[in-house]
Design goal:
The protein is α+β, with helices and mostly antiparallel strands and 93 residues long. It contains one helix and four strands, in the order ββββα. Strands 1-2-3-4 form a four-stranded antiparallel beta sheet. β2 and β3 form a beta hairpin.
């Protein structure tokens, strides 16, 4: 089983100006259990915008996915932003 959860392209308009290392990327989050032991993992994919299949996919265990969520939450708090979760639907993009 593989099921897409959410995805979002990041164009230059979404990125901060003045940074030398910014890139137009697309991110996607999915769940997958297509492994020998059928254990479900969270799949985080980052790829160059408009170049599907040329990116990297991290297959995260539940513990690693939670650690990433905590890190993102901490980063938002560090810049003074609340962690406000909204439903993940295509209409919220």
């Amino acid at each position: 089983m593989r099921r897409s959860i959410d995805d979002r392209p990041l164009s230059l308009a979404d990125l901060p100006s003045g940074a030398d290392d910014v890139a137009e990327l697309s991110w996607a989050v999915a769940v997958c259990d297509d492994y020998d032991d059928a254990t479900p993992h969270v799949v985080l994919t980052l790829e160059p915008l408009g170049r599907p299949g040329e990116g990297l996919a991290a297959h995260l265990s539940p513990d690693h996915a939670r650690r990433l969520v905590r890190a993102l939450s901490d980063a938002l708090r560090e810049i003074g932003e609340p962690l406000t979760l909204t439903p993940t639907t295509k209409e919220h993009q």
